[in-house]
Amino acid sequence: MGNGELRVPTAIAVTSADMALPPQDERTLPAAVLQDVGRRPLDEVLTEVQALLDQHGHLIVVCSQAVPVAVERRLYTVRSLLESDRIALFRPPLPPLGIAVLARQLRQLASCDLSPGVLASAGRLLTHYIHAGALLGSVARLDRVPVGLKAHAKSWVPGSQFGVLAHPEPQLVRIGPGAALTGPEFGTWLLVAKGQLQSDWVAGTLAPSWRTLGLREVPLPAESAAWWGTGRLIEFCAFLPDLSVLYQLVTSVRQSPCHWCGIDLIGDRCVFCSAVPPADDRLPDLHRRDGRPAERHASRDRARPASRAGFG
């Protein structure tokens, strides 16, 4: 894993301090925290983001889908006013703890010899390897995962608890003898964040069944209660911790230039300018060296993207 020529690493930003997890290793770069962007004066936020661009060249903002609408609108506005294709706004379908884990993985990779476009598009790839869920005291207000009528009815029974996996495939089980969630088929660490729920099911049952390599606890993100529909929860996330593994996953995918802005990327959509290749260019004929499918790259002679300011 080389570092290439001396360069300033791409900045990885989160929208609150509790989404900036402690470093995973000695190479994990600090997160840029865009705190209270929905409430602070616009000029102040613009100055802060411009300073990050001046210092780092490119900025990747990893944002939860549970952020207040004002935060989302402000991020759109800042990107539009700065007229910059050097800002990637990435909002993957992960619970808040999963968002924090993904942001830390990108902070790990930012120390490597990856171009900004490859690093930004690596977020989509790494999302597939994250298993994120929670133990809930109620699913009555859960709308992120399909919940059947029986589960809704049982959620009103005192003492009921539910194991829920939101990603990569939705699962929901009522906690009892034999209750289990399908976990990763590769070695992971488990991160646990406790809310207002007392239980040893995650550490005592889930972690052994998933054969996790280790377990660590962190504070519960402030956005978690809104995302899961209850504060009576224990959120968990299984992830790949080793930088060497993350780097190998990303570099095993073929890189290609974005047909609109020209930046190198992996996958079929540029996270910076939002360009996607035309349908006739999106053919599933590329594979990574480990045999997993990768997406067809775009040619450079096509039309501009329909939207250049959207979230990734």
TrEMBL record:
<feature type="compositionally biased region" description="Basic and acidic residues">
    <location>
        <begin position="284"/>
        <end position="304"/>
    </location>
</feature>
<protein>
    <submittedName>
        <fullName>Uncharacterized protein</fullName>
    </submittedName>
</protein>
<feature type="region of interest" description="Disordered">
    <location>
        <begin position="284"/>
        <end position="312"/>
    </location>
</feature>
